[in-house]
Specification:
2 helices; Sulfite Oxidase, Chain A, domain 2; 5-stranded mixed sheet; globular; 6-stranded mixed sheet; mainly beta
Length: 183
Amino acid sequence: MTLPPGQHLTDDFPVLTAGPTPRVPTDTWQFVITDADRRRHVWSWDEFMDLPRQQFTADLHCVTKWSKLASRWEGVSLDTLFDAIPAVSDHALVHTYDAYTTNLPLADLLGAKAWIAFRYDGQDLGARHGGPARLLVPHLYLWKSAKWVRGIHLLDHDEPGFWEMRGYHNYGDPWREQRYAGD
């Protein structure tokens, strides 16, 4: 077992949020990717559930210094969602149902690196962990894996998200301890 520097192992799945937990019914949930030409690519919950899904295991690392290893998930790869979308942008801003945002290089969402996850440990993802669906980008600190995800806006420039505007590192690599600006 190898942990990133400064992390400690946990067996539970701590819940940290910056505000109230949204309750998003699947009959009104939708996921939207807005491309660089401002075209909207929209999936309803039923359309999303019809997409090819993957089961995968991921290690999670939180900026608050806990790590959870070998967590089991099910979701749709961002590669699947971007198959029909011209990804000519270099940056992405992820939006959620609670007005949270986080920024990522588009390259970190593609190449089997990120999923929209809707099941955890064999169960539908509960609201406290971001259900009905959350972004999961396990190679970065968990704040980049936005809960209650509703869409991705492709940009030609980097635009800081919620925590990045409040002093968190712009990228968030746990192996380099990129917790805060200047790390």
